[in-house]
Amino acid sequence: MGLLEDISKAVEELEKGTALSLVKKALDEGVNPPDIINSGIVPGLRGVGKKFEQEEYFLAELMMGGKVSQACIDLVQPYLPENDNANLGTVVIGAVEGDLHDIGYGLVATQLELNGFKVHKVGVNVPAMTFIDKAKELKADIIGLSAFLVTTIPNCYEVINYLTDMGIKDKYKVIIGGAETSQAKAKEMGADGWAPNAVEAVALCKKLMGI
Amino acid sequence: MIPIIAFQERSLTGPVMKADEFDMGFSMKIRELVKKYDIKYNEKELVVDDATADAVYQAAVDLLVEVGIYHMDTERVIKLTREEVEQVAKEYRENPSKHTFGKGKDKVTIKYRTSTDKRPPTLYAGSWGVAQEDWYKPYIKSFVQEKSIKAMGITAGLAKLGDLKAKAGTLSEVTVGLWENEKVKEVLDEVGRPGLHLGLLSTLSSPGGIMTIVGGGFRDGHNTQIGVHIIPEMKISWSQFVLAQFCRVRGVQPWQSSMSMIGGLCRNAQDAAVGLTANLLGQLSYAQGQLCSLFTNHMDGKSATRPTHWAYSAAARASERNIKVCIGGCASGVLCKSPFTLIQAVNMATLFTASSMSYCWIAGNTGVEARYTGEVMDAIAGMERGQANELVNKMMDLQTKYAPEVKGNTCKFPEVYDLETVQPHKWYLDYLDKAKEELAACGVPY
User: Fold this and answer.
1) Does residue B27 belong to the interface with chain A, where contact is any CB pair within 8 Å?
2) Which pLDDT score is estimated for A1?
3) Residues of chain A contacting residue B67, judged by C-beta atoms under 8 Å apart
4) pLDDT in tens, B93-146
């Protein structure tokens, strides 16, 4: 088995120590850094996602997969040519004000990370302006809003209304999700998309990024 | 008993931790404990045995002591000692829970039950989800006109009143809440049940909104409850503590509900059962309520599968044998043009009755299914475990048979009831009759 396949296997099996030493070895041996990411770390991450879909892995493994891969990417990052990175897009995501539920959006965040997005979680019970400030600061591409309760869905509208009133709505794609949300509600409030689960949220974000 | 103010200090001085780190620790510890106590899932034994229930309880005590409760505002972990957790359970065990709700002829006492108790669970029911103004009252009336329904768990909420969106923590939330409260009162007066227990406030979710309605006297200790629960998995904020304190000041029975999700931080039924029980113990430590509802579901929202049944039963029976609080479950059906609509609710209610639950909340259906489901609970209360298991397994097969009919056939209340007479349409009753025939063939004593 080649070095890149070994890296992939270590990431998929969540062996952080092994994965990191293999990445170091690959760098020492002069393996092309983008190849370490694209043919080593990323396939390993895909394996983690696949095992999750097959119910062999669970949320904790997904989170661990994100941490292992991020540590590996951090090692490779300094050796990448300028403007060459594995980021498919930057997402700011959290639960809107009044909402304390974090499992659903946490799962979406982890799936996005595993699929190559740079994700910044802003937490739960987040005021509209915090989403916007963070998106501006990170030059985010996508803002993800999670609302579990009927009474917190209006706080998704609020984020979009602020973006519109501040004249910056076209700078970001806004997606929504959560128990009582729907495609119809997303359309009504002017969001760019809605997904019923984490896997479809990844497909939606890729579509919005033109990938 | 731990004084609630003790949670102030612990929330401000406990170990500092990021939520992700807490989640990982929770998930790994629960796996370790399921292994340590050798907790095994058996898909054919959905009403679990005593030894499994006791193992789930022991694992839950360990989990709460070793992992704690995560405070989302302070990003610290609230720690409880083993002595404290065991003392909380002991005090409940020595004084099995009961609480009286309602007023006058609508009074009802919810009491701790055992799994073979001949007294059936108290029938809770109520409208559910999101309703609209034009059918808000008939939807509620469909339930409260059924005399076998002794209390409501909640009523459906409105997303909008006219053009006014109900927004948490703002004026519109209170305005919508006041409107709903007035309509509920009108329905109760119309059916002659003014003292009925109404459960949770529906649209209101923020502490400010809740306190405005309850503190303002629009709801009272006899007919309301306020949610103070730890959210999954083992997380809390100041809101729950403040509301628990408000319940004591205002004489309101806190609404405790314990939830764990299968396929998230909990891998499976065993993890979820331990998570549910640890969550319950955590809530009892600060809220000191007499009732607790259990909720578990898969990540896709399904809540009536073999693994969820097993988790419900294991957690309820863990409490039955080691805590003795009044446990409740939500037998949620899916309103649809298929016998499935009643089959799922009856299946869940049967499991809950045989697993010691003190109250069963029929939600997601209408008044007529709640009545039919209550009849089943009355008939099967006291059934021994082996027989109950056999029955639940047969109903699970029946549910599987009808599940494909749900897709594309779901409906809303105004489609299945005549809004003027508040009676179900004949075509809908035909589906329910078909369900009753099928259930009777399984051995359900209709």
Assistant:
1) yes
2) 63
3) none
4) 999 999 999 999 999 999 999 999 999 999 999 888 889 999 999 999 999 999
Q: Say whether pLDDT at B181 is over 90.
A: yes
* pLDDT value at residue A84: 54
- List pLDDT tens digits, range B33-60: 999 999 999 999 999 999 999 999 999 9
| Separation of alpha carbons A48 and A111, rounded Å | 10
Pairing of strands B326-332, B291-298: parallel
List chain B residues with CB under 8 Å of A101.
231
> Which residues neighbour B3 within 8 Å (Cβ) at sequence distance 6 or greater?
none
Specify the pLDDT at position A116. Answer: 84
Count chain A–chain B contacts defined by CB atoms under 8 A: 86
B201 Cβ neighbours under 8 A, 6+ residues apart: B154, B177, B181, B209, B210, B213, B214, B219, B224, B226
Backbone angles phi, psi at B66, to 5 degrees: -85, -30
**pTM score, two decimals?**
0.89
Residue range B402-428, pLDDT digits in tens: 999 999 999 999 999 999 999 999 999
Considering CB atoms only, which of B72, B172, B301 is closest to A100? B72
Q: Tell whether B232 lies on the interface with A, counting CB pairs under 8 A.
A: yes
CA separation, residue B143 to residues A200, B99, B184, B362 (Å):
37, 22, 11, 10
The CA distance from B225 to B254, in Å, is 5
Closest to A52 measured CA to CA, from B418, B260, B72, B265: B265
Model confidence at B194: pLDDT above 90: yes
Q: What angle do CA B330, B335, B340 make, to 5 degrees?
A: 85
Residue contact A151–B205, C-beta within 8 A:
yes
Q: How many CB atoms lie within 10 A of CB B227?
A: 22
- Beta carbons of B311 and B273 less than 8 angstroms apart: yes
Q: What residues of chain A score a pLDDT lower than 50?
A: none
B168 to A100: CB separation less than 8 angstroms, yes or no: no
Best of B18, B21, B23, B243 to mutate (most A CBs within 10 Å, chain A): B23
Cβ-defined contact of A97 to B169 (cutoff 8 Å):
yes
Nearest Cα residue to B136 out of B160, B153, B152: B160
List, as ranges, residues 21-80 from A with C-beta within 8 Å of B: 55, 58-60, 63-64
Cα separation, B348 vs B121, whole angstroms: 12
Beta carbons within 8 Å of B70's beta carbon, 6+ residues apart: B17, B19, B22, B77, B78, B234, B235, B236
Residue B12 has pLDDT above 90, yes or no: yes
Q: Is B24 in contact with A197 (Cβ distance < 8 A)? A: no
In angstroms, the separation between the Cα of residue B233 and the nearest Cα of chain A is: 8
Report the percent of chain B where pLDDT is more than 90. 91
Chain A touched by B20 (CB under 8 Å): yes
CB of A131 within 8 Å of a chain B CB? The answer is: no
Residue in chain A lying closest to B157 (CA) = A150
- Choose, out of A151, A157, A185, the residue to mutate when testing the contact with B (most B CBs < 10 Å): A151
Q: Are strands B253-262 and B225-227 parallel, antiparallel or unpaired?
A: parallel
